[in-house]
Design a protein that fits this description.
The complex is a heterodimer of chains A (772) and B (187). Chain A is built from 24 helices and 21 strands. Chain A is of the alpha+beta class. Chain A starts with 15 loop residues before the first helix and ends with a helix. Chain B has two domains: 102 residues, no CATH class; 76 residues. Chain B has a six-stranded mixed sheet. In chain B, strands 1-7-6-5 form a four-stranded mixed sheet. A three-stranded antiparallel sheet of chain B has the order 2-3-4. Chain B is elongated. Classes of the chains: A alpha+beta (772), B alpha+beta (187). The complex binds adenosine-5'-diphosphate and magnesium ion.
Chain lengths: 772, 187
Amino acid sequence: MVTTERSRVLQKDLPHSLQDELAKVHIQPNKVWLCTDTDLNLSGNYEQVWLAVSDDALAVLAEPKQAGQPAVRHFISRDEIQEVRVRQGVGGGFLETIVDDIVVVVLAFSNVKADIFHKVAGKLEQWMHKQAIEVDASDDADPRHCPKCGLTLQFKGDVCRRCVNRGAVLLRVLKLMRPYADKAAIMMVLVLIGAGISLIPQQLVRLLINKVLAPEQASNPPLDLATAKHWLMGLVGALLLTHIIGSLNNLGVLRLNSYVGTQITYDMRKRVFDRLMQLSIDYFDRYNVGQLISRVQGDTEQMKGFVQQLTTGFFQQIIMVLAVGTILFIMSWQLALVTLLPAPLVVAGSIWFWKRVYPRYYKVWDSNSKLAGVLNTILSGMRVVKAFAQESREINRFDRSNSYVRNSFRTVEYTVAKFNPTIGFIFQLGGLLVWFIGGIWVLQGRQITAAGGKAPLNLGDLISFLGYLWMFYQPLTQLTQLTNWLTGFLTATHRTFEILDTPIQIAESDKPISVPDMKGHITFENVTFGYDRHQPILKNISFEIKPGERIGVVGKSGSGKTTIINLLSRFYDIDHGRIAIDGVDIREMSKTDLRGQIGVVLQEPFLFRGTIYDNLTYGLADTTPEDVIAATKAANAHDFIMRQPLGYDTYIGERGAGLSGGERQRISIARAILYNPKILILDEATSSVDTESEKLIQDALLRITKGRTTIAIAHRLSTLKNSDRIFVVNRGEIIESGTHDELMTLQGTYHKLVKIQTELSGNVDSLQANVK
Amino acid sequence: MTAKMNETHEDNGAPHLDPTTPRYLTPEIARIHLGSRNALHVTVLNDRIYGGVYAAYIFPVRQPRKFVSLRYKNAKGEEIEVGIIWNLEEWPQTDRALVEEALHRHYFVHTITHIHHIGWKYGFIAFDVQTDKGPAQFLMRWQHDRAHDYGRGGKVLLDVDENRYLIPDLGTLSDKEREEFLRYVYW
Ligand SMILES: Nc1ncnc2c1ncn2[C@@H]1O[C@H](COP(=O)(O)OP(=O)(O)O)[C@@H](O)[C@H]1O
Ligand SMILES: [Mg+2]
C-alpha cells in the first residue's frame, strides 16, 4: 500500500506562534513527524495543548495564557525515555512516560481523544525503540466512529443511530404489513362500513319521534293508532337490524385485527430472534440480557398495538369525528357551532393531561422492571441470603420495590381519576348547552338551515342531534393521545429495528473457505485485541502450534489466557494481525467448519435444564449410548452419574444446579470427548476437580488428546505434565515459551511459578516427578 | 537522595509496603511534594520517596473528603498503592492542595448546574446544559447503563464519548428542570 497522504489526526499543523517556540528548544518544525492536539491541560481543565515529536525529542506546548508563562510545558529527549504508556483516569486519560525511573505525566486527554492517544502511545513506543514508524492517512481509519457523520459508535460495526433514517420507521412498518395487504384492506373497508352503520340509529330515532311519537310538533300529520303501531314496529325492527349488522361487522373487524396483529408480532419477534442468534458474543457483552428480553417480548408487541390503532383505534376515531361532524353540520350548522364551543376545552384539557401523565407512566414501567429485577436477584441468590441469614433484610428490600410500584401506579391512577370526571363534566356542559339553546329554538319553532333548505327545528332533530354529540366528543378525547402513542410506538419500533439493523460482526465471509478436515496447525501473527475501546488486552501476540502438538498455557488470572482461545474460536474478531488454522485466515473460514472442529471445555461449563444425557449429546446428531458411556468413563463421570437416581436420565437444573463444580466439569469434558474435535481446548477444565479424579481425567485426556492439537490452560501446573510446550502469558503477552525443562533452566516466571506451587503443596519431588 | 536511587530499592521489595494490608498515611509519617519534572512525589518516613504518584477516591460518593488512595504504576505496569490518606483535612495546606489538584486531574467530570433543554434526537437524549466547565451540549444513549445513581439523589451521565456529566443532587435543580430530566431519565 503506497499512501503518502498525511494523517489528518496525527499530522496536524502546529500554530505559527508555537512553531517558533518549538524552534527555541531545537526541534525544527519541518522535522516533526507527529503533531496532534489534546483538549485538556494537566490541571484537568479545557485547553488546547499540542504534542510535537521529532526524531530526537518530544515537546508539549500551548499558547501562554499569561505573560511569562512558558509555551513549552515538557521537553523530553528520546534517549531519556524508558517507557511510554497510557493510563486511564475517570472520564479521561493520560499519556505518561517514564524518565529517570520517574513517571512523568506528559499530557491529559478527555475520552473523546482516547482512541487517538492510544494510537499515539503505540507510535511513540516504536519511536522510543528506534523502530521505523509510518504515519499517514491510513492512521485516520477509525472503525469506532460513523464514517458518515463522525458520531462515536458503541462498538465496532454498531449502527449509527444518527444516520438510520427515522422517518422511514412508519414506512417500514407498513412494508411489514404488505403480506397482509388484502386482509388489511378488507379491515379498513369494514371499519368504514361500521362507521356508516353507526350513524343510522340516530336517524331512525329522529324519524320515530317526528313521525310517530310526536308528529304535531314537527308539523306532520298525526297517524291513527294502528298505523302508528306499524310504524313503531317497523322502526324498532330497523334499529334492531342495524345493531345486528353493526355487531357482525365489528366481529369481522376484531377478528381480522387480531389475526393480522398477532401475525405481525410473530413475524417481528422471529426476525429479532433470528438476528440475535447471528450476532456475536460481543453484542451480548454490551447489552444487558434483560433489555434484550424486553425487546423481544415487549417492543415487538407494539406491532399489534399499531394494527389495533389502525382499526379500532385512531383510524376509526378520525373517521368518526369527520363523519359525525359532517352530519351535525348538515342537520343544523347553527346548533353544530354551539356544540363545538366546549371542543377546544376538551382538546386543550386532554393535551395538558397527557403531558402530565405520560412521564408518570415511565415511572410505572420502571418500577415494574425494577421489581422484577429485585425478585430475580433475590430468588436466584437464595442460597446466599439464607447462608447469611439476611431474610428480613431482603424482605425489606422487596418491600421498598413493592411500594415503589404501588406508589407509581397510584400517582398515575389518581391523575387519571381526576381527569376522567372532569372531561365528563365538560361533555355534560356541552350537552346542557345544546339542550338549552336547542330547547328554546324548538319552542320558538325557529327556522334553521338544514340540508333540505329552511325548516323549523323540531324535537326529533334535537334528540338525534344530542345522540350524535356523544359520538363526536368521545373520539375527540381519544385523538389527543395520538402524538403520545405515536412517540411511544416509534421508540419501541425503533429499538426493534435497531437490532435488525445491527450488522453481524462475526459475519461469514462472502466466499467461505471450507476446511472439512482440519489438521490443527494454528498460527497467531501479531495479534492485537481488546474488548474495550481503550484497552488492548492482547498485545502483538505471535506463535505457532503444529498439528497434534499439546500446548500448556499458564499465567496469572486476568492475563488474557481465555481471551486467546476466545479469539481462536472466533467469538470476537481481532483488531490487528491474523489468526490462521491450516494456513487459512479464520475470518475466511466457514464458521461451521471452524467451530465444528474446535472443542472447548470451559472453566464454567454451560449446562442447561434437561437430562444429563441431553446435556452430553447437545449438538450431536448421531451419537450412540455406547459412545456416551465410553466418553463418560473416560472423563471419570460415569460413576457419579450412576449414583443419580435416574442415572443418565436424571434432570439437572438451570446451569447444572444439583451437581458439584467438579461434576459439571467432568460432564463438560465428556461432551468434548464425544464431540471428537480436531482442536481441543481445555480452559482450566479440571480446576474444580479433586486431585485424585484429576489424575484419572489427565490420563483419559492423555489418551484422547493423542494426535490432536490441544491447548490446555491450567491453574495447577501439575496438569501440564503432558504438554509438549508451555506458554507463559503475562499482561496480554507471551513472555516465555518452551518445554518444561527449557523454562526451568531459563529461571524466569515459569520457574518462579513452579517454585511457589511446590512450596505450597510442600511436595517438590512429586511435582518434579509428575512434570517430567 | 535521588529518586533514581530510591526506585532501585523497589526490586529488593520495600519493607513497609505489604500489598495485603492497608497503609494509612498521616502528616507525621509522610510528605507530599512536587519532585523532578513536576511529578507528584510522596515521601514516607522510614520507607522511601515515591514518584509519579496519582490520587483516586476510594469512596468517591460516600466519603469524598476522606479515604484518598495515593498510587503509582510501576515500570512493570502494576498499580501500587503507596498509602491511604484517611482524612484530607488533617493535612497541611500545601500537601492538601497538591492532592486536590491530583484528584481534579484524575477525574474529568462536568458538573451540571443548570439544564436548559433536553430533547430526543436520533434515538439519543440530547442535553443542553450549563456545567462548571461552561455550557455544553451532548448526546446520551437512552439506556439504563448510561445514567448511574450517584449517592442518594444524584446521577452520573455518560455521553456517547464516555465523557462524564454529574448532577450531584437532583434536589438542587429547579422543579421545571427536574421534571424535564425525570421525563427522560426516569430510572
Ligand atoms: N467480555 C469481556 N469484556 C471486557 N473485558 C473482558 C471480557 N472478558 C475478559 N475481559 C478482561 O480481559 C482480561 C483478560 O481476561 P481473560 O482472558 O479472561 O483472563 P484469564 O483467562 O487469563 O484469567 C481481564 O482483565 C478481563 O477483565
Ligand atoms: Mg480464564
